[in-house]
């Protein structure tokens, strides 16, 4: 998003379709798209953003639901967090529903959208580690009816960016029909911003475990070696249970991968100790990862 001069004229456009919204953004390059506005309005109220024009997405019905497509769920970017938290959606993608329910107080969940979570890309976005663990992709609508699809992790990492006039229209999520968990730690009781969060997904068809850790870095982190190690210990054709020691070791493995020790100095001196805050964060991630795997296997 771009800041604009305080005396610029303000216009609001309310398109009825995704292509109309793309056309409006193409015609007004300085315009900012807005859906729930939970992050946008906070920036405006804080004086950090002064958009010259707004393109409201609230009337685009095609991006407010979902549909089934070749073993995947095609989720509209306008789905609210509150809608994703309902039981029918939880039966479809339980990890994403759990993250949506944990995203904050009702007023935030009622307004905030899946697409807004992705585009804002806040490190504490609760749906982001789940989307990373599910290896979801985003379908992007562009000018002249163009469409392209990229992994959501590429967008979150900045490896691929939205081009002028483009909008996230849909999110494609594989339907695994397998256990999924999402856990997060906050600095206070009740809904709040995550200090750390962990999404964990079992993929029996590929005999894999996928884990993503949120809030500890600018984007969700995937501890790939820890995933491969613990997947090799699971009896995929049997009980799938693990002894407590293995669960603890997995948690420690994930935490050390995401919050590593400081690199040793080049002069050969003793490496610096990890700060107390980082040690506490590492312990928090270890507990979340251990519990998430334990619940998924139970």
TrEMBL record:
Pfam families per UniProt: FAD_binding_5 (PF00941)
UniProt key word DNA-binding: no
Keywords for this protein: FAD, Flavoprotein, Oxidoreductase
Record GO terms (molecular function): FAD binding; oxidoreductase activity
Identification of the protein by name: Dehydrogenase
Gene3D superfamilies recorded: 3.30.465.10, CO dehydrogenase flavoprotein, C-terminal domain (3.30.390.50), Uridine Diphospho-n-acetylenolpyruvylglucosamine Reductase, domain 2 (3.30.43.10)
Domain FAD-binding PCMH-type: residue ranges: 4-205
Organism of derivation: Streptomyces kasugaensis
């Amino acid at each position: 998003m771009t800041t604009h001069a305080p005396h610029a004229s303000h216009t609001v456009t309310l398109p009825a379709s995704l292509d109309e919204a793309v056309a409006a953004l193409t015609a007004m390059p300085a315009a900012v798209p807005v859906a729930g506005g939970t992050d946008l309005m906070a920036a405006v109220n804080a004086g950090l953003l002064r958009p010259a024009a707004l393109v409201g997405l609230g009337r685009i019905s095609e991006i407010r639901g979902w549909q089934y497509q070749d073993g995947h769920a095609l989720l509209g970017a306008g789905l609210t967090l509150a809608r994703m938290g309902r039981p029918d959606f939880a039966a479809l993608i339980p990890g994403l529903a759990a993250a949506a329910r944990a995203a904050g107080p009702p007023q935030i969940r009622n307004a905030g959208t899946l697409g807004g979570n992705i585009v804002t890309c806040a490190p504490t976005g609760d749906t982001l580690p789940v989307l990373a663990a599910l290896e979801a992709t985003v379908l992007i609508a562009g000018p002249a009816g163009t469409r392209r699809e990229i992994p959501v992790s590429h967008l979150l990492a900045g490896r691929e960016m939205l081009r002028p006039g483009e909008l996230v229209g849909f999110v494609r999520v594989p339907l695994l029909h397998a256990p999924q968990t999402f856990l997060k730690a906050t600095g206070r009781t009740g809904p709040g911003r995550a200090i750390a969060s962990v999404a964990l997904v079992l993929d029996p068809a590929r005999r894999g475990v996928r884990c993503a850790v949120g809030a500890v870095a600018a984007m969700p982190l995937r501890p790939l070696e820890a995933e491969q190690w613990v997947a090799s210990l699971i009896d995929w054709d049997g009980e799938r249970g693990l002894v407590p020691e293995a669960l603890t070791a997995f948690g420690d493995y994930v935490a050390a991968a995401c919050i590593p020790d400081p690199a040793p100095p080049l002069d050969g001196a003793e490496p610096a100790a990890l700060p107390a805050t980082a040690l506490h964060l590492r312990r928090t991630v270890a507990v979340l990862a251990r519990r998430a795997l334990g619940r998924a296997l139970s």
